[in-house]
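Q: what sequence does this backbone want?
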């Protein structure tokens, strides 16, 4: 395993030298920046495993740099410690609000620095392992799509539609990211479904259909052990639920179906309708939208979301 990379951000050269001198003997790879702006740029260009950042700096304070790093998908999971001589309660509150993971008070105590560094790097390594496991599942889902000419690219398109729908309906950045991740993984449970059922050119028998309907629960159970998957579980399990309560596997109805889940379901249905399948040809966009509005009128889908999808597709045309 390569040594951990630590970014040290401080406008005073002597402070950078002190931290470097304490950490270098531990074998870490150390990178430095002389102010918040440079620290932000370096972290985004090549995310480190840990950031030690001063607060009072020219061009950009540590508070602002921290806030921006925690808001960016590339660095929001990188632990960030504010190293500061500020001890006032309001300063600590401001740091917490910016998203920092810990504080160190100047002058830095060497033992405290080492203990905090090792603890945060252990936590980061666990997060990296979980993300790697998630990436493996996404790769499996993509490979599963690719096995069938009729579903190639389906999960990626559903992820794009769902994320765009979330944006159109005012969901925040984290919720949109969750929708995208769920879109990529929503059909992972089909890894346990017989391929001849998925590719059958005619209607499924009742027993075959019951087997195919198990895939949301199988996907849920595959993802359940991973802590990073917790926000996705209800979406993966529920992407075939319907507002009228006639969906599966849980027969959810009305308000029991969240807005993100409604977005994912509509995205999934639209892509299925507008893609060639073994049992039928793809519908044109206008025909698919007409059919989905007709189904919304009898309570299957949320008409507001169907209309929002039409607007999203029109902008992207």
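A:
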């Amino acid at each position: 395993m390569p040594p951990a990379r630590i970014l040290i951000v401080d406008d005073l050269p002597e402070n950078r030298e002190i931290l470097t001198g304490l950490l270098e003997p531990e074998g870490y790879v150390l990178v430095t920046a002389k102010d918040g702006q440079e620290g932000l740029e370096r972290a985004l260009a090549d995310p480190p495993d840990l950031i030690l950042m001063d607060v009072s700096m020219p061009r950009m304070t540590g508070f602002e740099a921290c806030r921006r790093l925690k808001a960016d998908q590339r660095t929001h999971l990188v632990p960030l410690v504010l190293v500061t001589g500020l001890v006032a309660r309001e300063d600590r509150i401001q740091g917490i609000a910016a998203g920092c993971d810990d504080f160190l008070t100047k002058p830095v105590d060497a033992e405290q620095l080492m203990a905090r560094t090792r603890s945060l790097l252990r936590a980061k390594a666990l997060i990296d392992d979980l993300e790697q496991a998630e990436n493996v599942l996404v790769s499996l889902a993509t490979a599963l799509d690719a096995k069938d000419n009729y579903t190639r690219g389906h999960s990626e398109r559903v992820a794009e539609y769902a994320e765009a729908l979330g944006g159109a309906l005012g969901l925040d950045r984290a919720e949109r990211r969750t929708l995208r991740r769920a879109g990529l993984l929503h059909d992972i449970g089909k890894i346990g479904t017989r391929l001849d059922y998925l590719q059958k050119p005619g209607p499924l028998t009742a027993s075959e259909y019951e087997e195919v309907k198990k895939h949301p629960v199988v996907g849920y159970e595959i993802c359940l052990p991973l802590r990073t998957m917790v926000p996705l579980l209800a979406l993966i399990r529920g992407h075939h639920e319907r507002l009228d309560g006639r969906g599966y596997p849980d027969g959810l109805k009305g308000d029991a179906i969240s807005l993100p889940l409604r977005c994912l379901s509509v995205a999934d249905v639209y892509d299925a309708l507008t893609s060639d399948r073994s049992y039928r040809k793809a519908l044109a966009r206008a025909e698919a939208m007409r059919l989905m509005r007709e189904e919304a009128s009898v309570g299957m889908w949320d008409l507001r979301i169907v209309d929002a999808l039409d607007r999203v597709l029109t902008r992207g045309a």
